[in-house]
Specification:
Blueprint lengths: L2 H17 L8 E5 L6 E5 L12 E5 L14 H10 L5 E5 L5 H5 L18 E4 L2 H4 L10 H11 L4 E4 L3 E6 L2 H20 L11 H12 L2 H12 L9
Parallel strand pairs: 5-6
Antiparallel strand pairs: 1-2, 1-4, 2-3, 4-7, 6-7
The structure holds zinc ion.
Length: 238
């Protein structure tokens, strides 16, 4: 894929994540440049469902772009994860509702079904108070906070951010989008099953096997999600 292709795919990822209830007016998704590993693509500061390929900006790993249009305040989430994780080619940052409670509580977010098998790899937990005290606005608004979040994420595919949201990463845009969608779905299932006795999560082996199988099936979901998201195309006409 060229970066021109990735700009189109990134706009689609924005629309899908809105349609699937992972992003609303806030949150964002990025992809590493296919042409330069030290660059990434991210929309300008705007609601995800309204993003077109022309709204995509190119950033370096310091979170700097030559495009004068306003940037997302939290672009450092993306910049510092790409710096720390050469294997990561896409990052989703969201405030999706069912995930939030697990960032607040010591109750672990567990993989409860095969579609979320990737969660057995460990869910990181970012506590902004550990690095910036107890009076921040919770936003990852500079490189130091982004680096702290990336360090907390470590090798994991997913990180909770207390009182704020989460980060899902992947080796491709469709995989990172898949993880963001199914982390939210899994969190909703875990909340729904909390009154049941003897809930049995996936074992590490089950989760790893399921994640490997599902990584080869992501295209099926992407194609459907893309078509479903087209119902919002009229929003970009106005
Ligand atoms: Zn945020």
């Amino acid at each position: 894929m060229t970066d021109a292709d990735l700009r189109i795919q990134l706009a689609q990822a924005n629309h899908i994540l809105f349609d699937q209830g992972v992003l609303d007016a806030f949150g964002h998704v990025s992809v590493r440049s296919a042409e330069r590993a030290d660059r990434f693509l991210l929309a300008r500061n705007m609601a995800p469902v309204l993003v077109t390929p022309a709204d995509v900006q190119e950033y370096d790993l310091d979170g700097i772009t030559s495009d004068p249009a306003p940037s997302y305040l939290e672009r450092f989430i993306h910049a510092e994860i790409y710096r720390a994780r050469p294997d990561v080619h896409a990052v989703v940052h969201s405030h999706s509702a069912s995930v939030i409670p697990f960032g607040l509580s010591s109750t672990p977010l567990q993989a409860l079904f095969h579609m979320a098998g990737f969660l057995v790899g460990g869910v990181a937990r970012f506590e902004i108070r550990d690095v910036a005290g107890d009076a921040t606005d919770l936003l990852v608004r500079d490189a130091a906070l982004g680096a702290a979040l990336a360090a907390t994420l470590g090798d994991a595919p997913f990180a909770l951010m207390r009182g704020h949201g989460s980060v899902a990463v992947g080796a491709s845009l469709p995989l990172a989008v898949y993880r963001a969608v199914y982390a939210e779905e899994n969190a909703a299932l875990q909340l729904r099953s909390r009154h049941l006795a003897d809930v049995v999560p996936l074992t590490d082996g089950e989760g790893r096997s399921a994640a490997e199988t599902n990584a080869g099936q992501v295209g099926r979901a992407w194609d459907m999600w893309r078509r479903l998201a087209a119902r919002h195309d009229g929003l970009r006409a106005g």
